User: Fold these one by one.
Assistant:
Number 1:
Amino acid sequence: MERKGKWTPGLWVDDGHDGKHTIIVNSKWGEVARVAYIGCYKQQHANARLVAAAPELADALEHAVNWGIGFAKKTGERPTWLDSAIAALMAAGVEV
């Protein structure tokens, strides 16, 4: 399946703090995001991991949406999660 997202491709990683209060998320092409400290280091690291996982999450959701659309066409039954999954992809700029 062709990647539809327009974001930086590939693996994104939480590269840790920049020496201040910001966590850097990088790809092999360079920095893609900075995650600010908002009063709790645990939450900041969780936010950074979520940002770093975004490309893989979007790819998995795209596969699920394609499956759901195929299922709906084949059976006439639309999965209850399909509309919210499509909306999430569209919010990320993916045309469905």
Number 2:
Amino acid sequence: MTDTRQRKITQADIDNRFTYHPPTDPAVRERHEQARACARTAAEFLVDLLPPGRETALAITKLEEVLFWANAAIAREGSGDALNAPTSAP
């Protein structure tokens, strides 16, 4: 059985989450660009497909959130950010 409780947020977690992680590797910059292009394509598709209104605006906002988290995942890769990873039962 897996224990899905989350561990306590540590100072290292805070430092990692609130530190700018600039892309230094061209391959990493490319991954950011690919994520941005994908989100932009989805946004353009939805704006053309959906009627104007609150729901459409929320859909676009959620795509912005998708891009935010995608970029965070790329930037934080390998930084030990396992805060939300499930832990194993002892």
Number 3:
Amino acid sequence: MEATMANQENNMVTIRDIEIQVGNFAKQLAERQSDQFSANVQTNPKEHCNKIAFENGRIARERDSNNVVAEKRKEKMRLRGRELRKKERRKEVKRKR
């Protein structure tokens, strides 16, 4: 019985400590400016993106975003073309058998 009471008192003290911590955290959040970002952010020294890597490991080197989009489309078309050629070769091999 005494052990249960001691545990309950310890739990109550712990809950009070947590409530105080949450209150302090809420104060800090309220005091922080809304436009301030909390992380330590390092700016990119080159200030822009020079390369984009595709899933197949190929890297697009165009700086213009329009060129990059076009390059992605070309890459998709190349991959589709390869797949179609593979399918055609398989069909031919089956026909020859």
